[in-house]
Write a structure and sequence with these properties.
The chain is α/β, with parallel strands linked by helices and 176 residues long. It has 7 helices and 7 strands; from the N terminus they run βαααβαβαββββαα.
């Protein structure tokens, strides 16, 4: 699944809402650790303890919407990776655990910090990466988010950090 293609890209999808303090163990259930070498199979169980319907009903581009401290816990990179494999277009939350945030960018999954308190399950959303705005089409509202730095947008557009290095052979800073 390719990452965003540029700063002006608009992402569209439905909201899947979750609360505060969603841990990496809730995203990638620890009891299924034996599946860590088969990430597509593990992705079939993503967030199943929080919402048993999510893994089977998420559509490509849908948004995971959390509250505060999304992705706390262990540093397992599997958590953002299986969200991306399952089809999540981005994760929106009021705040992120630092390691989850970095791992998400590294695997090509946009993570955006914004006020998610008015977004409800099933709302249709549009995220304008260039404008730094989440539009809730269902409620006709908009909330700003802190725009990602150009280097992070570049890594996302390249499909993650590994793909970025494959393309350039080094860390490539965008000009401007």
């Amino acid at each position: 699944m390719p990452g965003p293609q540029g700063a002006s890209e608009i992402l569209r999808g439905r909201a899947w809402t979750f609360g505060d303090d969603v841990s990496t163990d809730q995203i990638a259930p620890g009891r299924l650790f034996h599946l860590r070498t088969d990430l597509p199979e593990l992705a079939k169980h993503v967030l199943e303890d929080e919402n048993p319907e999510f893994a089977t009903a998420v559509r490509p581009g849908d948004f995971v919407v959390g509250g505060r401290n999304f992705g706390l816990g262990s540093s397992r990179e599997h958590a953002p990776r299986i969200l991306r494999i399952a089809g999540a277009g981005a994760v929106l939350a009021q705040s992120f655990a630092r390691i989850f945030f970095r791992n998400a960018i590294n695997v090509g999954l946009p993570v955006l910090t914004c006020d998610t308190s008015a977004i409800e399950q099933g709302d249709d959303l549009e995220v304008d990466l260039g404008a730094g705005e989440v539009r809730d089409v269902t409620r006709a509202t908009a909330v700003p988010f802190a725009p990602l730095p150009p280097v992070m947008l570049k890594i996302l557009s390249d499909g993650g950090l590994v793909e970025h290095f494959r393309m350039y052979g080094e860390f490539h800073l965008p000009e401007g």
